[in-house]
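Sequence in, structure out. Go.
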Amino acid sequence: RKLDHVDAVIMSDYNKGVFTEDDSQDLINLCRKQHIPVVVDFKPENQYYFKNATVVAPNLIEAKLIFPDFSERNPLPGMKALHDQLGAENVLVTLGGNGMVVFDGEGISRVQGRRVDAIDPCGCGDTVRACLTLGLVSHLSLADAADFANYAASIVVQKLGTATLQPNELECWEPVK
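Output:
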């Protein structure tokens, strides 16, 4: 009922029983019909709930649970395998301090990590998904949206505990050329 009033949907699965495969697929299919991007964070055991999402965004540990041969050094084969297995339009794998890698179904883009004094990674994944989505609905390319999300996470990781961002903290971001 609310989809007419949203720009995007973020689905975060913490494996607490909120999502079912049928309900998740119904929501994703409705969003696709209305051209609403769906960005998903999921637990590997529920990976099939989220097929056909716009972007699925596992972290490196989750990517390796799904595809044990995933290599940070040579991510293309792993990204292709995740893309095919997860059935998503795009795959983004977060690599902690080493940035991210993004696959759009054809090729990969690397987002370099930013050198910061990391204090606490709590909340970085949620920040990535939120800011990636913000970038996508602001008409950034997938690679630029990932870079924006990486920038945002580099701010949050410097704060103690589950932290939030202030709009002025994002004003200095510029796409990497």
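Check: The radius of gyration is 15 Å. The chain is about 35% helix and 15% strand.
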